[in-house]
Design brief:
Layout: H1 9-22, H2 30-38, H3 43-72
Helix pairs in contact: 1-2, 1-3
Length: 109
């Protein structure tokens, strides 16, 4: 067994915050938010983590809803507006993976 260096505590807190948000954990990552602020992580970096986590959470919910609607034979309403980025919405077939940026352009990949 080899000794592996541990992740820095701020990285652990960011991962935990993001996963808590994306999974809709009832604690909402508030403890990790405090740790990040105490560690001096800039607010813009914390905001980016929160935005990316929410984007992944919301995208997962949309894909699950679309898959359910397809299997249930329900018609899914088509969005009438373009995404906030102004770019055309990407259509992804079930089972494919894709990384779409957040509304502010943050990459989630």
């Amino acid at each position: 067994m080899t000794d592996k260096p541990e992740l820095h505590s701020s990285i652990v807190a960011m991962v935990s915050l993001a996963s808590g948000i994306a999974s809709r954990h009832p604690d909402m990552g508030l403890c990790q938010l405090d740790k990040l602020r105490q560690a001096g992580v800039p607010e813009h970096q914390i905001a980016a983590v929160i935005e990316i986590a929410r984007h992944i959470r919301d995208e997962a919910a949309e894909k699950l809803d679309a898959a359910f609607d397809e299997k249930a034979g329900l018609e899914t309403p088509k969005p009438t507006a373009k995404p906030a980025s102004g770019l055309p919405e990407l259509k992804v077939e079930s089972g494919e993976s894709c990384c779409t940026p957040t509304p502010s352009g943050q990459s989630c990949c």
